[in-house]
Design a protein that fits this description.
There is one protein chain. The chain has 14 helices and 24 strands. Helix 11 runs antiparallel to helix 12. The protein has a 5-stranded parallel β-sheet with strand order 5-2-1-9-20. It is α/β, with parallel strands linked by helices and 488 residues long. The structure holds flavin-adenine dinucleotide and 1,4-dihydronicotinamide adenine dinucleotide. The site of 1,4-dihydronicotinamide adenine dinucleotide has 28 residues, from helix 7, strand 14 and strand 22. Keywords: FAD, Flavoprotein, Mitochondrion, NAD, Oxidoreductase, Transit peptide.
């Protein structure tokens, strides 16, 4: 037994040291030149975005085969599944981001990165107009591409409901999490300065989340945890007055989960004093009040912090692109074929993740991640096809039957994208989670504290880097031993 523990201890330490070494010392990278050794031109692949789809593509791509250019206003990857834990301080923001530079240094061939946003994609001339996001270093460029992958994600939708944009916070980016944190703490401190009988105090302590999808549910759960587990220690009287309300237009929250899990979550919310308002649709928002319709009744809900999580809408750059292509007639996202090629763009533009709409594929990290992996394998084959076409052109014989046969064979190997659904997980508060897992052809469902441990280990395993894994684990340990604080 002693020997086994000794060996496993040594193995564990060895593995840890190797991972730490790898994190700090990326391998040397091939500098990119305009042509390959055989004289053929290196094609330019522009990747828009640094989210789940684009980063999964980048990590799996043989970047030495292309002149790879990444364009994104965000110079990091954000691990969104743990974003709802950040406004209340369960997880620190730095723990769930991974810099693009460190990802780009770990791939085989050099990658160019522009901290910029794509404004306009021209599918005909194969160019993309980009604009820097750095106010002190403003520039606009037209990048020429042979292939482009659109992975710009989506923006939060407000359905045009008056007052949402001006008064609510979203939960999509790091800046959103910081804003929510600031609003919560400011409201709490303001309320503390007012007498308990003041109605303004009640409004200041009313926190509302709109949208009973997984984002809204997970954030409401984290917020209630924070109030009950930590704020209650620092501000015992005031914390008991804090009201967390979750508003959902449909008869149920978490519609992608099995009914038994939804019932479990709703029951827990009741127990945890999250005021769940189902069949309640928000119609208007002012600086202090939300007006919602429940049945035939209109109800006013005073609030101080409003988090809006009602799903996705296409970004401007995707909308512009849709307008340029006649076949693009969906308002829900860019239409793609089963090989992730943008309809109407003749094979030069691909799209992944939340910016797309394809029946049966939902806007989740899981889908975007698998699409990125798939595209990396497609680009390997496209490189081979392009090389063969170049060889044929060198021979001045585009119809060379041998080469054409080889091209056809490789083309046949580019099979349609197939999504493998692993299931869905959600944190629902009080150290409990729900899981709807796909095991083979059947679904396995579980809920409770054990599922929460599974949720934690699954997300830990999914983190982008070893560094993220260590930081997230340390954050959980910190909250367990020291709790969360009440500073801004
Ligand atoms: P994103 O990851 O959103 O990335 C888009 C990228 O494009 C970003 O880098 C952005 O900066 C960049 N960009 C934006 N505009 C431009 C532009 N004009 N030009 C260039 N780049 C641009 N899914 C799950 O499966 N499981 C979960 O647990 C889960 N939890 C979530 C929690 C939260 C709070 C949220 C908001 C989402 C969650 N999701 C989850 C959904 C998941 O995050 C998305 O489906 C996923 O991020 C989509 O990946 P994407 O690459 O399409 O877009
Ligand atoms: P969502 O689209 O899943 O849910 C939005 C909810 O808001 C819907 O239930 C809708 O009925 C409700 N709604 C819309 N308008 C409303 C109004 N005016 N008043 C009240 N309610 C209204 O959006 P969400 O949660 O932002 O998720 C986006 C995507 O990200 C989804 O595909 C989701 O699966 C994925 N995601 C997955 C997570 C997980 O697996 N744990 C966590 C977070 C997001």
């Amino acid at each position: 037994l002693l020997k086994v523990s000794l060996y496993s201890g040594l193995l564990g330490t060895g593995y840890l040291s190797y991972q730490l070494y790898k994190e700090k010392h990326p391998a040397p990278q091939t500098p990119q030149s305009a042509t390959f050794v055989n004289g053929s031109p290196r094609k330019t692949l522009v990747i828009l975005g640094t989210g789940w789809g684009s980063i999964s593509l980048l990590k799996n791509l043989d970047t030495s085969l292309y002149n790879v250019i990444v364009v994104s206003p965000r110079n990091y990857f954000l691990f969104t599944p743990l974003l709802p834990s950040t406004p209340v301080g369960t997880i620190e923001l730095k723990s769930i981001v991974e810099p693009v530079r460190s990802i780009a240094r770990r791939v085989p061939g050099e990658v160019h990165y522009y901290e910029a946003e794509a404004l306009d994609i021209d599918p005909e001339n194969k160019t993309v107009k980009i604009k820097s996001v750095n106010k002190e270093h403003e520039y606009q460029l037209d990048l020429k591409f042979d292939y482009l992958v659109n992975g710009v994600g989506a923006q939060p939708t407000t359905f045009g409901i008056p007052g949402v944009f001006e008064n609510a916070s979203f939960l999509k980016e790091i800046s959103d999490a910081q804003e929510i944190r600031m609003k919560i703490m400011t409201s709490v401190e303001k309320a503390a300065s007012l007498p308990p009988t003041d109605p303004e105090r009640e409004r200041l302590l009313s926190f509302v989340v709109v949208g009973g999808g997984p984002t809204g549910v997970e954030f409401a759960a984290e917020l209630r945890d924070y109030v009950d587990q930590d704020l209650s220690k620092w501000m015992p009287g005031l914390s008991s007055e804090i009201k967390v309300t979750l508003v959902e237009a449909l008869p149920n929250i978490l519609n992608m989960f099995d009914k038994s899990l939804v019932d479990y979550a709703e029951q827990l919310f009741k127990q945890d004093r999250i005021d769940l308002r189902i069949k309640t649709m928000v119609k208007n928002v002012t600086k202090t009040t939300i007006t919602a319709k429940c049945g035939d009744e209109n109800e006013d809900i005073p609030y101080s912090v409003l988090v809006w999580a009602t799903g996705n809408a296409p970004r401007e750059v995707s909308k512009n692109l849709m307008q340029k292509l006649e076949v693009q007639d969906s308002r829900r996202g860019l239409l793609i074929d089963d090989k992730l090629q943008l309809l109407g763009a003749q094979g030069s533009i691909f799209a992944v993740g939340d910016c797309t709409f394809y029946p049966g594929l939902f806007p989740t990290a899981q889908v975007a991640h698998q699409e990125g992996e798939y595209l990396a394998s497609v680009f390997k084959k496209l490189y081979k096809i392009d090389q063969l076409k170049w060889q044929a052109a060198q021979k001045n014989d585009a119809d060379d039957s041998k080469i054409q046969n080889r091209i056809s064979k490789i083309q046949a190997q580019i099979v349609p994208f197939k999504y493998h659904h692993m299931g869905a997980l959600a944190y629902i508060g009080s150290d409990k989670a729900i899981a709807d897992l796909a095991v083979g052809d059947s679904m396995y469902r579980s809920a409770g504290s054990f599922t929460f441990l599974f949720w934690k280990s699954a997300y830990l395993a999914m983190c982008m880097s070893f560094r993220n894994r260590v930081l997230v684990a340390m954050d959980w340990a910190k909250v367990y031993f020291l709790g969360r604080d009440s500073s801004v």
